[in-house]
Specification:
This protein folds into 2 domains: 38 residues; 159 residues, 3-Layer(aba) Sandwich (Aminopeptidase). The strands form 2 sheets. A 7-stranded mixed sheet has the order 3-4-5-6-7-2-8, with helices on both faces. The chain has a two-stranded antiparallel ribbon with strand order 1-9. It is of the alpha+beta class. The protein has 6 helices and 9 strands. It is elongated and about 95 Å long.
Length: 213
């Protein structure tokens, strides 16, 4: 009888040890997941490049509208030419970060669908007839996301990023958003902060512009 009791005690002790080992392994897997989750599916033939820490920002109120720089006008995108101008601006703007010229055009290659989406609003700033800055707002479920804010390299330092950001942010609140979020670059974060956005956290981002072979 004592042998049976001893064996059962040993069995329970073994199960407890095994459970503790599993918990420790699960914790380590969770830590590793947090560290590499943004990488997605890793490719041995196409290593990912670690980008700068990306600020996640949020705004809870309408922003003060700045004066337009001389010669600048704002136009909401309502036709395919407007979508083309939007793509043209951001193709130039995001080349700063190494984005190939065809990536942005391919992402928005069906302008009629973009125009038909009532949840998406785009504004383009023009200098005369030349598109020089843009921003997009996507509204859903009471919140909005500010995306694809960009200014062509030849028109930077004119305050155009501020102008289109404020326009797109305020449109989101006009639509009923309780908050507007954005993922900023290191270059754009100071601008958004001065406008009234707050940085909530930062995350690591891994980039691979070229397709795996």
């Amino acid at each position: 009888m004592s042998f049976v009791i001893a064996s059962q005690i040993a069995l329970w002790v073994g199960l407890l040890v095994l459970a503790m080992v599993c918990l420790a392994l699960a914790r380590q897997v969770g830590v590793l997941h947090q560290r590499i989750a943004p990488a997605g599916a890793l490719s041995l033939r196409q290593p990912l490049k670690l980008g700068d820490p990306t600020p996640q920002m949020i705004c809870h109120r309408r922003l003060e509208v700045p004066a337009l720089p001389d010669g600048i006008s704002l136009s909401p995108v309502r036709d395919e030419q407007g979508v083309a101008d939007f793509a043209r601006v951001d193709t130039d703007a995001y080349a700063t970060y190494g984005m190939p010229a065809d990536v942005f055009v391919d992402m928005f290659d069906r302008p009629h669908r973009l125009l038909a989406d009532a949840q998406t609003t785009i504004v383009v700033a023009y200098r005369g007839v030349e598109p020089v800055a843009t921003a997009l707002t996507f509204f859903s479920g009471g919140v909005a996301s500010l995306q694809w804010v960009g200014t062509v390299a030849a028109a930077r330092q004119m305050g155009l990023g501020r102008v289109v950001t404020v326009w797109a942010t305020n449109v989101a609140f006009d639509l009923g958003a309780t908050s507007v979020t954005l993922q900023a670059s290191a270059m754009g974060e100071p601008l958004y902060t001065t406008l009234g956005y707050e940085t909530r956290y930062r995350y690591r981002e891994y980039v691979r512009w070229t397709a795996p072979a």
